[in-house]
Amino acid sequence: MSELVLQLLEEKPNGLSSNLSGAQCIIPHRRKSRKKLWRKTTKSIGGFTLSVRVYCSAVLIALLIFSSVITPAQKKSRTQDAARHASEAAKTFTEIMNVKDKAIPKELLDAAEAIAVFPGVIKAAFVVGGRGGQGVISRRVRGGWSAPAFFNLGGGSFGAQIGAQKTDYVLLIMNPSGLDGLLKDKFELGGEVGISAGPVGREAAASTNPRLDAGILSYSRSKGAFIGAALKGAVITPDNDLNEAVYGKKADDLLRGANLTFTQMPPSVRIFPRTLVRYSIK
Prior knowledge:
Elements: H1 2-11, H2 20-97, H3 106-111, E1 114-141, E2 144-145, E3 149-173, H4 176-182, E4 187-188, E5 195-197, H5 203-206, E6 216-222, E7 225-228, E8 235-238, H6 240-247, H7 251-256, H8 271-279
Parallel strand pairs: 5-6
Antiparallel strand pairs: 1-2, 1-3, 3-6, 3-8, 4-8, 6-7
């Protein structure tokens, strides 16, 4: 046995020695292996990092492409919404004014600072009720009417009614305070600004200058009947999402800021101020 050990020590195979230097020969070999393993691992991690960067770049590019495609589609949809609101308001106002002896008196139209039309407002009730709809408001400008600003009309009510119906509303804003009230973020009719049922047709002759008694005159049409209606408790708020999508401006800027000329207005909304001009211009 001792002879075999002596023989192995005399042969000194690679990586083996009878003294400390032999052990030291093994250590560099192991360090070299670790360096190779580290380089390989580092290369793998670097590739992973590169892959993540490429993936994130690809996702970002895809999002940019998607947003460039979806934005025009959204703008087209909002433009269609604006055209629908303006067209429905113009149609409603024309129908109301064409009813003989039941239309809004011209002298009141000529005195109005602004006109609001909310067509097809849905009123529903089951003990507790409410209403909701969209409409437009144009203010008087020299030689015509401003580009229509878009507003929402809502509000709750209490009563014993059960059912639902559509009602058209027309508001004549008779003085600057009435217009200022409408341009608040949330304006409740009948609150700070007085509102009353407006006279129709020959009723105006019997009225004692109604436009001086209220900042806003209100009218409604339901089931074919058009009457003056005190629309108290209704809440009007500007639809600035739609205003900014169509004009790049809020309602306040549209109705109190620099006026857009008729040719500067988007063609899709011109029908409303054009309709108002047919019945009142100064």
